[in-house]
Amino acid sequence: MTKKKIGILGASGYTGADAVRLLARHPNAEITALTANTHAGKAMSEVFPHFFMLDLPKLVEWEKVDWTRLDAVFCGLPHGTTQEIIAAVLKANPGIKILDMSADFRLRNKDSYAQWYGHEHRALELQDEAVYGLTELYREKVTAARLVACPGCYPTAVLLALVPLAKAKLIDVDDIVIDAKSGVTGAGRGLKQNTLFSEAGEGLSPYSIGSHRHSAEIEQEIGAAAGSTVTVNFTPHLIPMARGEFCTSYVKLNGATPDDLRAELEKAYADEPFVYVTKKGVLPQTQNVRGSNYVQIGVVADRIENRAIVLSTLDNLVKGSAGQAIQNMNLMFGLPETTGLEQIALFP
Hints:
Blueprint: E1 4-9, H1 14-23, E2 29-35, H2 44-47, E3 59-60, E4 72-75, H3 82-92, E5 97-100, H4 110-117, H5 124-127, E6 131-132, H6 135-143, E7 147-149, H7 153-167, E8 171-182, H8 197-200, E9 205-206, H9 214-226, E10 233-238, E11 245-253, H10 258-268, E12 275-277, E13 295-301, E14 307-314, H11 318-332
Parallel strand pairs: 1-2, 1-4, 2-3, 4-5, 5-7, 6-7, 8-10, 12-13
Antiparallel strand pairs: 8-11, 9-10, 11-14, 13-14
């Protein structure tokens, strides 16, 4: 197959950089355009020195890219800036494939988007077209899509753990408590006081308590699986490591046992290349998936009767972002889903 010509919007961010890292060794991809308006004119290795060995195009302003020459574009821009840019890219090249790693097209309800993101959606005609890109749940729709809204990192970890259980009616979807922790790359590469080493190191801090925007995605998808409106208790924390994510979900059982939950998850992911359900007594750990596109899920009985604890972990920059986007790209181009994504976790 001829290599697909790939562009990356927002290549100077962490998700954009991980897309470059993974695509640089993808046998069917050729990176031909990299944008970063604040770093326009620089070599990628000036912004990310670990790319010193790669022959990459220079960073340019997004307006200067000839989108008609590209087959696909990955978007790593912040939410709110993405909608109009993607609309312009699709106007220039209606046949291009869009892998959006921002939050701008994840929510199906326009009122919900305005509520959580503070402004009206600026590309409603595209919002209706966008496919929610949680690969394991929407594989067929992703395959046929032009615009894929790749999920957030927290929703990916939580939904892979809970959606099969909600769909099978094994848990009470009105009683879900999610304790989530992410490495500091989840906060982006911009200078923020709370991510300075002396502020984030050697400590653990919650943020956006009761108001984190990923709650909307989690509720949207668990609600769709359960066939009802769902509200979850979701609290994220910043943990002092660069990458990685761990979600602990506390659930009430609907006449099921923790072993039933594990069996349902094993059935749901028996043929999935990247989702692994641990054996009874084996606990997921962030170091088991670091740098990889793999997800580990485990189930433990709670000491409180009729409750269970579901554990899930992934790398927030890979399966939680760039890796899942590439997984979706593979489907959109009819490639084996695992192409370019079978890296083993980096340990220690």
